[in-house]
Amino acid sequence: MNDIVFKRNELLAQKVIKGLESRNMSGYYAKDRAEALKIALELIPEGSSIGMGGAMSAAEIGLPQALKAGNYRFIDRDTAPDRHKAMLEAYDADVFISGTNALTEDGVLVNIDGNANRVSAIAHGPRKLVIIAGMNKVTPDVDTAMKRARNVAAPVNAQRFGLSTPCARTGSCMNCKSPDTICCQFLITRYSRHTGRIHVILVNDNLGF
Questions:
Q1: Is residue 31 part of a domain?
Q2: Residue 19's pLDDT band (boundaries 50, 70, 90)?
Q3: What pTM, to 2 d.p., does this model score?
Q4: Which of 36, 94, 98, 175 would give a disulfide with 30, using CB separation of 3.0 to 4.6 Å?
Q5: CATH code at 132?
């Protein structure tokens, strides 16, 4: 990333953080992945139970690995003998780790989900939510955030999971009703009623999809 883009992102991140704060959410700026990991671990008390969706951004900063190696009770749905039970346990976790498909410059989070475990945990359940977001996820408004979620994040994730959806074949949203669709639930988080629950770490890097 060149210096001009880096500086632009740094300034934009401060605008997003102010927007998050106006919506009773906390925002943090990290200049790189290492700093993002440091901030995330500072937000997660040792001994906490930790749930997580399929957060590529969190994985890219090394957060799941650090949690598994540390003094935490990491609920690993991928290795659990009962995946569904592990996903339900995540709703009662002390902390839930997630990415976001998009967020607006004034602090609105936009997410799309297939099974709804991620968006439902964002909406309610876990006592603290830590979201990792690269600056590539920031969009001007809710309309462009939704377009990003549907035309960038969804097609890539459909391809990643090997799903047979029109977007996996064309690369853009076809507003399908395919049995494999991952655009089943849409969540727009415009305000947090619970002070101290939602924490968004903005990373000056391209993370996730």
A1: yes
A2: very high
A3: 0.95
A4: 36
A5: 3.40.50.10420
